[in-house]
Amino acid sequence: MVRCDQCGFDYEALSLEEVSSELDRLSVGFVEVLTRSEPEERTRLRPEPDVWSALEYSCHVRDVFLAQRERILLALVEVHPLFVSMYREQRCVLDGYAAQNPHEVAAQLAMAGAMLTSLLSRLSVEQLGRTCVYNYPVPTDRNVAWVFQHTLHEAVHHFEDVRRELGAGAPPEVDSTT
Ligand SMILES: [Zn+2]
Asked: How far, in Å, CA of 134 to CA of 83, rounded?
């Protein structure tokens, strides 16, 4: 998969520096749409019974950031590790995504995103080239750089979902030099 048919994300379009600044931009975007949606209950509305609400998608992205960080750290230590599934559907129920506070989720997502980009900023070319087996969409040998690209794709893809549901604008531009 080089380009996502649904959101248009291109895995080869961005440098890792750009991935980092885009992750920051998306985090700001999620915080804005989650904390400014009025009434707050809108964030909890599922457009269809089997389609997640904006709040549930945001909880998912927060957990993706946290899970990917753990996976990347594992790949920096173990040789070619295989990752356990996130169990996204089960997590939504087990962690009660629908009942969480959107303002708290926004803050948690921003913190998880910052932890991920902080890790990215520390890695050498050699570390970014370390390999793992990534199960999605089908088990494939990947490297750490790709895992960062894929994490950004998750954020971009689900920001589109959230934006569609809440009728919000594009994520804001952030100064990538800071
Ligand atoms: Zn996509």
From this structure: 7
